[in-house]
């Protein structure tokens, strides 16, 4: 027996809605668990359910978090903001400049350079950790801020996305008019190309920010001083002590909740331009 078109549409719509609800639950439930668990004391973890509130010791957990080990968590927050904030801003500008140059400037080897960039997208970042460590050792910057910060400024996917968006959003006629008026390439890029690429630039910034904020393996390889750790590595170090020292459990969970908040704020503030930039890239 064949289904009618109306029945098949209703069935497919129901399946899609069910899948969307399951995907939403998969994304939201870990956040709900973080919120409820951050309110618990050490004893509440063994006496309450996963999504139950405890005695609401969130204030005490926050106080202990910021005073543990002479307030080292504040240093981790500062480091993460420096790595991710400054790294995302500078990295986005570098990606935008590279993508704009590949898309709009005619120079020898442009296609080969773009092919190499696409190849770089396929290489996992963990595979580059050892070569980056050897380079940092040659430069004698292992164990410093720069050993982590400088490699984060490059992102092949950001260059690819900038190139795609520059081709779609920056008309060649406008650039030719600016050059005819005597504007140099740098001035043309910063006054004409970059403003037109703003939605794409926001998308690149968010990808950069999220990638750097969640970066774990590179700091693990490069850093030994806990005062230089980002939050991801610092909280991991604390999580390894939970089995021997249960008092670290609320600290790790509360710190993880705070680590998620900047990502949520960034997406909420920039979601409109991020969606338009991503849609333009997908259409292209």
Automatic annotation (TrEMBL):
<dbReference type="Pfam" id="PF00528">
    <property type="entry name" value="BPD_transp_1"/>
</dbReference>
<feature type="domain" description="ABC transmembrane type-1">
    <location>
        <begin position="77"/>
        <end position="269"/>
    </location>
</feature>
<keyword id="KW-1133">Transmembrane helix</keyword>
<feature type="transmembrane region" description="Helical">
    <location>
        <begin position="141"/>
        <end position="162"/>
    </location>
</feature>
<keyword id="KW-0472">Membrane</keyword>
<dbReference type="GO" id="GO:0055085">
    <property type="term" value="P:transmembrane transport"/>
</dbReference>
<dbReference type="InterPro" id="IPR035906">
    <property type="entry name" value="MetI-like_sf"/>
</dbReference>
<comment type="similarity">
    <text>Belongs to the binding-protein-dependent transport system permease family.</text>
</comment>
<keyword id="KW-0812">Transmembrane</keyword>
<feature type="transmembrane region" description="Helical">
    <location>
        <begin position="201"/>
        <end position="223"/>
    </location>
</feature>
<dbReference type="GO" id="GO:0005886">
    <property type="term" value="C:plasma membrane"/>
</dbReference>
<feature type="transmembrane region" description="Helical">
    <location>
        <begin position="15"/>
        <end position="35"/>
    </location>
</feature>
<protein>
    <submittedName>
        <fullName>Sugar ABC transporter permease</fullName>
    </submittedName>
</protein>
<keyword id="KW-0813">Transport</keyword>
<feature type="transmembrane region" description="Helical">
    <location>
        <begin position="81"/>
        <end position="103"/>
    </location>
</feature>
<dbReference type="InterPro" id="IPR000515">
    <property type="entry name" value="MetI-like"/>
</dbReference>
<feature type="transmembrane region" description="Helical">
    <location>
        <begin position="251"/>
        <end position="270"/>
    </location>
</feature>
<feature type="transmembrane region" description="Helical">
    <location>
        <begin position="112"/>
        <end position="135"/>
    </location>
</feature>
<keyword id="KW-1003">Cell membrane</keyword>
């Amino acid at each position: 027996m064949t289904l009618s078109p109306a029945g098949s549409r209703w069935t497919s719509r129901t399946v899609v809605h069910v899948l969307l609800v399951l995907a939403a639950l998969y994304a939201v439930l870990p956040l709900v668990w973080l919120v409820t668990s951050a309110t618990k004391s050490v004893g509440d973890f063994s006496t309450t359910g996963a999504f139950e509130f405890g005695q609401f010791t969130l204030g005490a957990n926050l106080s202990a978090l910021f005073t543990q080990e002479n307030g080292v968590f504040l240093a981790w927050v500062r480091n993460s903001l420096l790595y991710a904030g400054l790294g995302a801003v500078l990295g986005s500008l570098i990606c935008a400049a590279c993508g704009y140059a590949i898309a709009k400037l005619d120079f020898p080897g442009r296609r080969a350079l773009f092919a190499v960039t696409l190849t770089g997208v396929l290489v996992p970042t963990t595979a580059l950790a050892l070569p980056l460590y050897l380079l940092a050792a040659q430069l004698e910057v292992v164990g410093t801020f720069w050993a982590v910060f400088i490699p984060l400024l490059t992102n092949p996917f950001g260059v690819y996305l900038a190139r795609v968006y520059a081709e779609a959003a920056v008309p060649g006629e406008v650039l030719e008019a600016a050059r005819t008026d005597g504007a140099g390439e740098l001035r043309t890029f910063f006054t004409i190309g970059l403003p037109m690429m703003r939605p794409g630039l926001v998308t690149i910034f968010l990808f950069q920010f999220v990638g750097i904020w969640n970066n774990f393996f590179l700091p693990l390889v490069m850093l030994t001083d806990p005062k230089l750790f980002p939050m991801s590595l610092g909280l991991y170090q604390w999580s390894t002590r939970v089995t021997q020292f249960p008092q670290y459990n609320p600290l790790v969970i509360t710190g993880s909740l705070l680590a998620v908040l900047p990502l949520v704020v960034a997406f909420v503030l920039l979601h409109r331009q991020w969606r338009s930039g991503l849609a333009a890239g997908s259409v292209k």
